[in-house]
Amino acid sequence: MAENKPVRRPSFTVSNSLDNQWKGSYFEKLFPVRKTLFEKFPSANKGLAISGPGIKLGGDGNFSFVSNEKSEKVEYKKDGMNFTARYKRDAKLFDVSLLNKCCWVKNFNYLVKYEERKQASPHFVVGGDWKNGALQANIKINPVTLKMKSSYFYSFPCLINDKNQISIAADKKVNLNKLTSMNDHFFNVGFAYKHACLGTYGIAYNDKGHVTVTAAKKINNVTFGVEGVHALKDKKPAMPICVASIYELDKDTHIKTKLNKDLVLNVAVKKVMSSNVTVVAGTAFPLAGDLFNAPSFGFKVSLKP
């Protein structure tokens, strides 16, 4: 008897040239409209994904608890202090961190973090973030391994027309023991210009030698976007060009589409059921292949407290 094996459905290759170098980086703030346009849609190969739910309790501070199939997270916030404990179920790893407001330096928060990664010794991380008007900076360093992460974001009105906005962002990962080795430098740097009438345009460059140009414009209830990536080095981008659109049926229902160089059409429907529940269904069609097969959808259900 033949075994029933799952059929791999068409997938959609996305560009990763603007991925943050590390979690918590400010680089994503450079193109906020890009995340909305080019974010990953649920894949039929993964089936159903559920994020949340979380529990928030007020009163003396703010306590939240999130549990899912991958991790458990407890967070407590009060008066500029943020304490987080996180456990990753699949890898059996955990970390505990404290982010607190500094009393001696204005607009500065310091970070102390302990990480267990099943290595010869635990990881200790210290750092902080600072905000002064339009400028934000964040730095983290492991005093044992000397690995350092930093991120910067600066946004200001255009001098010619203050209705238009200019933004500059950068993030970086480096090992201070290997400053002379360019193979151990990982970075993003970018510039964006948001025009009140013409839309948002930007250009970015990363350590792989990828130059990424992004453009987005909203007309009535439709947002259009295009992104192209050109390699200045030998490392080819995951996807050199992609176009995307969002059609807003109403404030709670959006139809999203993306088309890449491989002529794969990615379609998703996002529906906000309530302030607590959002459902997204996504599928992919190979326009150069057989279009008559019944589409298979992937689903993501996001639950919020």
In brief:
This protein has 305 residues and is mainly beta.
What would your notes on this structure say?
By secondary structure, this protein is an all-beta fold. 2% of the residues lie in helices and 55% in strands. The protein is built from one helix and 20 strands. β12 and β13 form a beta hairpin. The protein is globular. The model has no long low-confidence stretch (mean pLDDT 87).
Which features would summarize this protein structure in a list?
305 residues; mainly beta; 20-stranded mixed sheet; Porin
Give the secondary structure arrangement, pairings included:
Blueprint (H helix, E strand, L loop, with lengths): L31 H7 L9 E4 L2 E4 L4 E6 L3 E8 L2 E8 L4 E9 L6 E9 L6 E10 L2 E7 L5 E11 L7 E11 L9 E11 L3 E8 L3 E10 L2 E10 L9 E10 L2 E8 L3 E9 L4 E10 L11 E6 L2
Parallel strand pairs: 1-20
Antiparallel strand pairs: 2-3, 3-4, 4-5, 5-6, 6-7, 7-8, 8-9, 9-10, 10-11, 11-12, 12-13, 13-14, 14-15, 15-16, 16-17, 17-18, 18-19, 19-20
